[in-house]
Amino acid sequence: MSTTGLDLKALRYLTYGLYILTAHDRGKRNGCIVNTVVQVASKPCLVSVSVSKKNLTHDFIKKTGFFAAQVLTKDVPLKLIGIFGFRSGRDYDKFDKVRFRDGVTGCPVVLEHTLASIEVEVEKAIDCSSHTVFIGEVVRAENLKKGEPLTYAYYHQVKGGKTGKNAPGYKASIAKDNSETEKGDKKMKKYVCSVCGYVYDPDKGDPDSGVKPGTPFEKLPDGWVCPVCGAAKAEFEPQD
Ligand code: FE
């Protein structure tokens, strides 16, 4: 088929939620951030998820045949997304840092900033090149708290969130923001995290970490770390 007229920017108009996807394997727990949880049938109640083959969570799901998806709240701090979204569970235990309990499938259920949890027993795994789509029956669904769910669009536009390299929409969603921030007659530069792509905007500061709006990058305390991936201040570069 011809690829003429293939404007990938069209894919940016697809809408998604944002979820912590968890799984387990022989006593180990892991999780990652996905935007690809979809209900695909009602009787029986079937749910699918698309996961990068590079993710450890993918390997756990493939082995055990279970996954759990937790719906994130709109007010989730970027730090929690950073724990699950930009580091590999091969390097460290993500569940050291969050409150959780094990669900009926053995998959961990994160109890911080999550509205609901859906546990699934996998029936089919469809190979989709870089990703696998797992489809299965919901064996437990529960509401954890009341509130509004986080959407992918809100995460990008309002919270300044970035797309992980293993997300299916990674290339389509990269957008460079070259602007500098004006403060009086001085320009305060934005700085980019070289690990995850988070942009420190002095106008916005980093309120989740106690940094007030209007704080230039140079005035950030030495112990300040990237709110998304935990990288040190030295990992940041001025934005061109
Ligand atoms: Fe970062």
Automatic annotation (TrEMBL):
UniProt cross-references to InterPro entries, sorted A to Z:
Flavin_Rdtase-like_dom, Rubredoxin-like_dom, Rubredoxin_dom, Rubredoxin_ET, Rubredoxin_Fe_BS, Split_barrel_FMN-bd
The highest taxon in the source lineage is Bacteria
Return one Gene Ontology term, BP aspect. Answer: alkane catabolic process
One Pfam family cited in the UniProt record for this chain: Flavin_Reduct
Q: What keywords are annotated for this sequence in UniProt?
A: Electron transport, Iron, Metal-binding, Transport
Named from the GO MF annotations, one term is: electron transfer activity
* Listed PROSITE patterns: RUBREDOXIN, RUBREDOXIN_LIKE
The protein's name: High molecular weight rubredoxin
UniProt source species: candidate division WOR-3 bacterium JGI_Cruoil_03_51_56
Identify the taxonomic lineage of the organism of origin: Bacteria, Bacteria division WOR-3
